[in-house]
UniProtKB/TrEMBL annotation:
This is Sensor histidine kinase. Residues 368-430 form the Signal transduction histidine kinase subgroup 3 dimerisation and phosphoacceptor domain. Keywords: Kinase, Membrane, Transferase, Transmembrane, Transmembrane helix, Two-component regulatory system. The keyword Kinase applies. One of its GO terms (molecular function) is kinase activity. The lineage of its organism: Bacteria, Bacillati, Actinomycetota, Actinomycetes, Streptosporangiales. InterPro entries: HATPase_C_sf, HATPase_dom, Sensor_HK_TwoCompSys, Sig_transdc_His_kin_sub3_dim/P. It comes from Actinoallomurus acaciae. PANTHER family: NITRATE/NITRITE SENSOR PROTEIN NARX-RELATED (PTHR24421). It holds the Pfam family HisKA_3.
Length: 551
């Protein structure tokens, strides 16, 4: 409502305050209107950013007060006195905003400069009003109803003060130019890119305002001069809008590269989001399916209500609308759709990658445990029995030796078969020597499935071929266990830079594409950079498609 009221004021105040200027010099009036509206609009935009809120308010104030420079168009009342004392108020407010941006506060030297500027452009005009008559300051039609101090009229003192004011304004303009130029040398390339439009506008305004003060002092008031000064000042709100857009792009770019140099743990994710979003109170609450609760990045159960008090929560959902986490952010960031959306997207990507890495690590541990169990229950058992049989041969009667040798031979053959089957499950020898088609057919024969197979005639890259084989092997195993059919179609083809592998059965269907049964299969494909799709309507079979990049 404040911004809307200010915008309305930017239209109505010039119409009232600038009075006869509308008729005498409409160009100046229109320029004033544009500068006021532009400053208020740019200020409203900056006020939505927590870091630049005060700068935004200062710009809004400069836009609202600019038309009041022409309050002396009304000879009666306080208008002439206000115009005399506060003529430079919009320029001072604009200078404050330019010197402060994009920092969160004025530096020591800039703060001192603003104090000197304020004293100079307010105290000296006020002193002039005390020693001048209205006609001397450009109000020839003053009336007894005109508010004026009339303390001590002295033309010589007035001329000295006016000359001092002009010289001081020229020097202050030079000092302002120095600050603007020095600001371009601070920070990295991105910081300088953000400062450049505002600094360029500040330099232009300093030159135009200084020239207008000097020309007015030497040649009197001319609306054409003020129109040209206003056109230069119109570049300030435009520059702030351009710079604000660049800051947003820089912030979004920083978010997109947030994990270039860091391992994406939840703690690092939270700290990097805090730094890039400039929200030190941002928190990341990760959903734990096992605990059925939100956890902090330190592993403690989170109090969502306490964490989100006076702040906003943004849910982060993963694949299948599965809840991953809550982002607890400042209200300003929550209202910024683009930045909040980028933060959610980055958090989703990081958390899903982190969970994928953990699932793959767990799957690796499980695979090792299965190998150990297979060795213990298979080959190790036969080898232990073989050792017992060989110890019996040493003390056996001659007629018992052939039977014991036959038993030992059977145990050796069984151990070799167990080891061969185990090795085949870990990595098929046929895949290396005969290719993908032969390895798939061998797996299908072991499972007792009838497979209609289509594969490329040429050999695929070795790592891709292994990934495709394990995908097809796992899909065939699932079909053997759950589909209730022995007929399966397998099609492997190359489409551009992607290998598409499809496994289709005519079984009972109903497979859960997001369930744990297909989790290992999905993780293997996604770890290679591919994508897995599962379609399994009840009673209509299961269709599994993997798209795997060739490199």
């Amino acid at each position: 409502m404040t911004v809307q009221a200010a915008l309305v004021s930017a239209v109505l105040v010039p119409a009232v305050a600038e009075g006869g200027l509308w008729v005498r010099h409409p160009l100046t009036t229109v320029v004033n209107l544009l500068v006021s509206a532009g400053a208020i609009g740019a200020g409203a935009l900056l006020a939505g950013d927590a870091e630049q809120r005060f700068t935004g308010y200062v710009l809004i104030a400069s836009g609202v007060t600019r038309p009041l420079e022409w309050a002396d168009e009304w000879a009666s009342g306080p208008g002439p006195l206000y115009a005399q004392v506060f003529e430079y108020l919009p320029i001072a407010l604009t200078a404050w905003a330019l010197l402060r941006y994009p920092a969160v506060s004025l530096g020591r030297h800039r703060r001192r400069f603003m104090v000197v500027l304020a004293v100079w452009v307010f105290a000296l005009p006020a002193a002039e009003a005390c020693v001048a008559r209205p006609a001397w300051v450009g109000i020839p039609d003053a009336t007894p109803a005109t508010w004026w101090p009339n303390v001590w009229a002295d033309r010589r003192v007035y001329d000295v003060l006016d000359y001092t004011l002009v010289v001081g304004c020229a020097l202050l303009a030079v000092g302002f130019l120095v600050f603007m130029l020095r600001g371009l040398r601070v920070g990295g390339r991105r910081d300088r890119t953000v400062r450049l439009p505002v600094a360029a506008a500040g330099i232009l305004v300093a030159v135009a305002s200084g020239a207008a003060v000097v020309i007015t002092a030497l040649a009197g008031r001319h609306e054409e001069v003020f129109a040209l000064e206003g056109m230069a000042e119109l570049g300030v709100p435009i520059a702030f809008l351009v710079s604000f857009a660049q800051r947003r792009l820089t912030r979004l770019s920083s978010l997109m590269t947030v994990f270039d140099t860091a391992y994406p743990t939840t703690h690092v994710l939270r700290e990097l989001l805090r730094h890039n979003l400039r929200d030190p109170g941002l928190d990341l609450l990760v959903w734990s399916e096992a605990d059925r609760a939100y956890l902090t990045v330190d592993g403690e159960t989170a109090d969502v209500e306490a964490s989100s008090r006076d702040r906003h929560t943004i849910p982060v959902h993963g694949r299948g609308d599965r809840l991953l986490a809550l982002l607890v952010v400042d209200a300003d960031m929550a209202g910024d759709g683009e930045v909040a959306g980028a933060a959610v997207a980055i958090s989703k990507l990081a958390l899903e990658n982190l969970m994928l890495s953990r699932r793959l690590l767990t799957a690796d541990y499980d695979a090792r445990q299965l190998i150990v169990a297979d060795l213990h229950d298979g080959a190790q058992k036969d080898l232990c029995a073989l050792r017992v049989a060989l110890s019996k041969i040493e003390h056996a009667e001659p007629d018992q030796v052939p039977a014991l040798v036959e038993t030992a031979d059977r145990l050796v053959a069984g151990a070799l078969r167990e080891l061969r089957d185990l090795a085949h499950g870990v990595y098929p020898h046929t895949l290396t020597h005969a290719g993908l088609a032969a390895a798939i057919e061998e797996t299908a024969d072991c499972l007792g499935l009838i497979v209609h197979l289509t594969t490329p005639e040429h050999r695929l890259p070795a790592t891709v071929e292994k990934t495709v084989y394990f995908f097809v092997g796992e899909a065939l195993t699932n079909a053997h266990k759950h589909a209730g059919t022995i007929h399966v179609q397998v099609a492997v083809r190359q489409s551009g830079g992607v290998i598409v592998a499809e496994v289709t059965d005519d079984g009972v269907g109903g497979a859960d594409g997001e369930g744990p049964g297909l989790a290992r299969l999905r993780d293997r494909i996604e770890a290679y950079g591919g994508r897995l799709q599962v379609r399994s309507p009840h009673g209509a079979g299961t269709h599994v498609v993997a798209r795997i990049p060739c490199v």
